[in-house]
Amino acid sequence: MVEKDFIGSKGIKVSGTSSWEAPSNIALVKYWGKFGNQYPQNPSLSFTLSKCVSQTSVSFTERLKPGSDFSFDFSFEGKPTPSFHPKIESFFQRIDQYVPFLKDHHLSIKSTNSFPHSSGIASSASGMSALALCILSIEKEGCPDISESFFLKKASFLARLGSGSAARSVEGPLVTWGSSESFEDSSNFYGTAINSEIHSVFKNYRDTILLIDKGQKKVSSTVGHNLMNNHLYAATRFKQAHENTALLKSILASGDLDAFVSLVESEALTLHALMMASSPYFILMHPNTLEVLNKVWDYRNTNNSALCFTLDAGANVHLLYPDSESESVIKFIKEELASYCQNSQFIEDQIGNGAKKL
Predict the structure, then answer these.
(1) Which helix (H) or strand (E) is 294 found in, with range?
(2) Which of 55, 131, 264, 297 is the most interior residue, by most CB within 10 Å?
(3) Mean pLDDT confidence for 118-137
(4) What is the CATH architecture assignment of 3-196?
């Protein structure tokens, strides 16, 4: 499919409310760097989460005198939040030609998160995918012949224009985004649920998120991605991501946990190495992040465990492990790692199946 396939019909006039719950996701192969209209410089592959979600409700009312602007209000966690308006406005401008009925309506948007906003748990991914799904549900009311397959593709396509990683938060449990020879139906336009063989060990995988720092990220994702435009190691990194995507596809089929651990941790550290080697450069890990990583390595070696970590562009640590190790790993977290978290907080999550209508 190409972009023009997603251009929507004009003249849709509806009233009503649409509500969706969309999950965050954690990339195993990282996307870092973009070009053009929110296209990824390399393919990525992620676990869809289950409990770290955004719930968004959008009420549509027809405007008596539609204008050239967008009309909306937004509340977050039950409070009007005008600070979000510029990001939403920018999102609407990007998707305008694909859902041209927006300017004919006033949108009342209400959203909540099950996890701290802007803490490195990809709240923009879950939030933007939930908002895109709400908008597209309204389009489907006016165009009921939209197929389920097209609906999911367009929802991911729209979500991508708000936040790149949001393309991977519509479906689950494993999603790839970005054109790759490893997945025939992969695309730069939208995320695609992986339908190739997945070993049973990965089907109930756990992700416990250690909240090292619940505050605003030091560097926004947009700034971080832009640093790849003239990065000394960009070409090598993009090549590596293609190779790791192919390798991870094989690992997911075989159930090779040692190879999974090695690849996932290498991807996480590569992301942070790229930031440290950027101009300007940034260190996103905190001292407690490093303490946790070393303790994870010690635990794995001592217990012959498959516990591993991954990181997004922040200080928090995602601990990934098979369901069979849940009891022992949670005990380890409570006894040895929680003290490194802000207010000893961590979130127990697991692999999920994607967004759902409420």
Answers:
(1) helix 287-303
(2) 131
(3) 84
(4) 2-Layer Sandwich (3.30)
